[in-house]
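Review form for a predicted model. The reviewer records the input and the model, then writes brief findings.
Reviewer: anonymous (R2)
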Amino acid sequence: MSQYPPYPPAGYPPRFPQPSPSGATAYTAAGAGVVLAIACAWGAFVTFGAVSECVGRCVARSGASYPISIACAVGLSVSALLLLVGAALIFARQTAGAVLTAVGAFLPSVTAVLFFLVPNIRIYVAYLGMTAVVVLIGLTALFEMILSLLPPTFAFLRHTPHKTHFPGHAPYGQYPPPGYGPH
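Model under review:
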């Protein structure tokens, strides 16, 4: 039996300072959020363009896909805004940024699924040759959502760096050393 306990008793601080969390996942989530926001803004632009082009010709044939297309375009626009604000907040080390990027990444993933579930929209996406782009946006959105919700991302955003603190007074006493300060 050893005369020293294997762990320090409860109530004592750890012997070594804990390393500060790495910002790799947070900054990757912010960068991916900016890229996804650009892709979502472009996707909303293309979707609004396709809907406006299709209004006179396609509405009678497409039925319910017209309102769904508008909802997808609005969802992509809102997603782009949420992703940009969330990425800016992550760069400012605010926890709300991770939540906003997760919500902003959820919307394009739903939109990508809707593009493939509604037959008329699926045909139009294939006609424009955008199938690979929609899949890429959906996969990037899934990647962004996972990165934003990882525990290391929140640990980095909640961590506050330690500041040097002088207990009660300046390091040289009450007054500055001779030659410094007001005369």
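Findings: Residues 24-49+66-154 form one domain.
Further findings: The CA atoms of residues 97 and 180 lie 43 Å apart.
Recommendation: see findings above.
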